[in-house]
Amino acid sequence: MTNGVCVRPVLNRVFDTQTGTDRVVGVSCGSTLVSKCPPCAEANRRLRMQQCREGWHRDTEPEPPADMDDVQDEDESAADDTESTRRVRSTRRRQDAADLPKVEMDKRTVGATFTAPNGKTYRPSMFITLTLGSYGATHRLPRHVQGKGIVPCECGVVHGRTSPLLSTPVDPDTYNYRRAALDALHFPKLVDRLMQNLRRRAGYKAQYFAVVEPQKRLAPHLHAAVRGTVARDTVREVAKATYHQV
Ligand SMILES: [Zn+2]
Ligand SMILES: [Zn+2]
């Protein structure tokens, strides 16, 4: 790492087969959040910048390396599976396939280009934020609403910034803890499927950078930068179908 040293390295015990001794080695935590580890976050930020410079704005597909012939895409490998595993898979597929219209799949990763009336061409990208639904009201800071002035929390109290109640359920009896827990448990799968479904629906191999962050109410929350653009309604439709599917 070029930018300082990780502030909370993960310790690993390494066994040296030559000397028969073991020692403890610190491995960088690799966090992308400055609040967790500034040096690692900075290193990650620089890596992303480099990756963006080299790949994000490409308008041609990179040539696959010569020795990558055997490497398959996850979507394609299913079709090449042996007969027996394919049968198993096809049953599973049907149960958890998202209810979305089929689009012919293109191998490209480059997004669509748009030409403005003045002849300039654009190839926009997009930002997606995925927020899970509400499980019930949580205590929050007073807000300023146009025409209404200061609006207090749902519970009627104007909470201070340091109130321990903030972001906790207003009514613990009706707050949907079960759903909150299930959503949090299945969130990684949800993100995987979301991108899979988005690619299927958009018809190209959209590439993305994403980060998952906890919200104050502790629900996970996804920010993704995606190469190319997909209609807003399509993204919404995919998100809904994916949530339903997972
Ligand atoms: Zn670190
Ligand atoms: Zn409150």
From TrEMBL:
<feature type="compositionally biased region" description="Basic and acidic residues">
    <location>
        <begin position="93"/>
        <end position="104"/>
    </location>
</feature>
<dbReference type="Pfam" id="PF20199">
    <property type="entry name" value="RepSA"/>
</dbReference>
<protein>
    <recommendedName>
        <fullName>Replication initiator protein</fullName>
    </recommendedName>
</protein>
<feature type="region of interest" description="Disordered">
    <location>
        <begin position="56"/>
        <end position="104"/>
    </location>
</feature>
<feature type="compositionally biased region" description="Acidic residues">
    <location>
        <begin position="62"/>
        <end position="82"/>
    </location>
</feature>
<dbReference type="InterPro" id="IPR046828">
    <property type="entry name" value="RepSA"/>
</dbReference>
